[in-house]
Specification:
Length: 73
Amino acid sequence: MNERLLKLAEKHKFVHEHMSPGEKADAIRKFQDIAELIVRECTDVCEEYRGTKWGKAAECIGDSIREHFGVEE
């Protein structure tokens, strides 16, 4: 998980300072799994535009989204 996802997890109270290290690690893992699914759904929408007049732009946007959140293709 990149730093951006960790900050989002902290900002939205998925993790907090009162958690044990094990609880925090488990919560971060679950948050990461959910975040990766959402990012993949978004980038899949971009992929649907492949072959259209917006294809290259949509592909670049999908790549940028994956990179921003640290999600592998």
